[in-house]
Amino acid sequence: MGYQGEETIFALASGVERAAIAVMRVSGKGSAALLEHLCGTLPPPRHAGLRRLWHNARTRESVLDHAVVLWFPGPASYTGEDGFELHLHAGPAIIRAVSDVLVEQGARPAEPGEFTRRAVVNGRMDLLEAEGVADLVAAETEGQRRQALAQTDGALSRMYTGWADQLKQSLAWQEALIDFPDEELPPEVEQALLSGMAALLADMEQHIAEGQQGERIRSGMVFAIAGPPNAGKSSLLNWLAGRDAAIVSPVAGTTRDALEIVTTLAGIRVTFIDTAGLRETEDAIEAEGVRRALFHVKQADCVIQMFAADTPPRTVFPGAVLVGNKTDCGPVPESVDDVPVVAVSLRTGDGLQALRAELESRAETLTASSSGMPLLTRARHAAGVREACEHLQAAMQQDWPEMRAEELRLAMRALGRLTGEVGVEDLLDAIFGQFCIGK
C-alpha cells in the first residue's frame, strides 16, 4: 500500500513570474472531489481537456477561468496519489480566485519539495532520483542538465543498488560458511568471496576518487588567472566576459583585489578570477592583493598562468594552462619546463580561439569520469559510499565469519541510506527543504 496524503496540497508549479499560462498542481486524497467541485466531472485520465472552472460546478456559481485540465489518478502519477493539474490563464486575480476555492474546499498550500517527498514515500522514486530532480530544476548549464537528468533517470541508484546486490551475494556466501562449518566446502568459495569483495571495494574507491568531477559539474569550477603585472590578465578576463569587466592600464599593480566573472566552457559553469600581479612590493595594499592572489591559485580547479612574450616564468604552477601573451611584441617560447605554451595576442586576437579550445578541453578533463561510472554529486553520497568502503575493508580483515557478516550488513545499510531504503527519516526535512514550492 502506498502512502496517500490525508491532506490535499496545491501549489503553483510554474512560478510567480509574469507569463501567459500558470500551472496549478494538486495532489492528495481529496483531489477527485476537488476537481469535480471545480469542473463538474472528471476528465479521462491523462488526457488534456478544455473546461470551465467554477466556484461551484454543481450550482454553476461564478466562472473562474477557462482552463486546460489533466486528471492523474494514483498510483500512476508523479506523487503516487490522486492528483490533477490546471493550466490557467496567468492573471494574478485568476490564480488567487482558484487558490481561494481550493482552500475553501479543504486543500492547503504545499511546503517546499512536498510533491517530490510524497513521490519518495510512495515509492515513485528514491532519494537519489529526488535529488536529481532538484538539480534538474536548478540546472543552468548543459553539463548540469546532463548530470541531473542521468541521476533523475536512476543512473546512480542503479549503480548503488547493484553494489548492494553484490554485498548481499557476498553475505549469502558468508552465511553459508557460518551455517555449515563442518562441511568440506571447497577453498575456492572463500577465495571467490574475498576476490569479489576486493573488486567491489576497488569500484567504490574509484567512485570516491572521482567525486570532485561530479561536484564541479553541479557547483561549477574556478579558474584563477595569475601572473606578473602587465601580463594581460585583466585583458584576458575582459575577453572571456565579452565586456569591460576589469580596468586595463599600462600602470603595474592596477589590479589590487580579485575580480570574478561567470561564464560557461564546454557546457560547464566556470568562474574566472582575475588576480593581482605576482611580484614583491612594499605597498601594503598591493601586498595584500598578492597574498589573496596566491590563495586563489591554491584553491582553484585550474590556474591560467600568464606571462608577457619577453618574460617567461621561472616556475610553472602545477597543472597550469601556460599562456604567453603579446606575440605582437616578440616571440613566445613553445614550452616552459616542458609545459606547452599557448601563444596569444590580446591586442590583435591572434591565438585566442586556440586558447578557448584549450580551456574547454581542460574543463572537460576536470569533469570527466575515467571509469565510466556515474559521478558523485553531493557530500551526502560521498559520505555514504565512504562508510560502505570502511565496513567492506573491515569485513575483508575479519577472521571471525560472524564479524565479517556483520560488517557486510553495515556496508549494505550505508548504501541503503543513500537511496532511502533504510533509516533516512532524519534526512528528509533537510533534503526536501531545499526544493522549490510546487516540486
TrEMBL record:
GTP binds at residues 230-235, 249-255, 274-277. It is an enzyme of class 3 (hydrolase). Residues 220-364 form the TrmE-type G domain. The keyword GTP-binding applies. InterPro entries: G_TrmE, GTP-bd, GTP-bd_TrmE_N, GTPase_MnmE, MnmE_dom2, MnmE_helical, P-loop_NTPase, Small_GTP-bd. It is found in: Cytoplasm. Keywords: Cytoplasm, GTP-binding, Hydrolase, Magnesium, Metal-binding, Nucleotide-binding, Potassium, tRNA processing. Exhibits a very high intrinsic GTPase hydrolysis rate. Involved in the addition of a carboxymethylaminomethyl (cmnm) group at the wobble position (U34) of certain tRNAs, forming tRNA-cmnm(5)s(2)U34. This is tRNA modification GTPase MnmE. It comes from Acetobacter suratthaniensis.
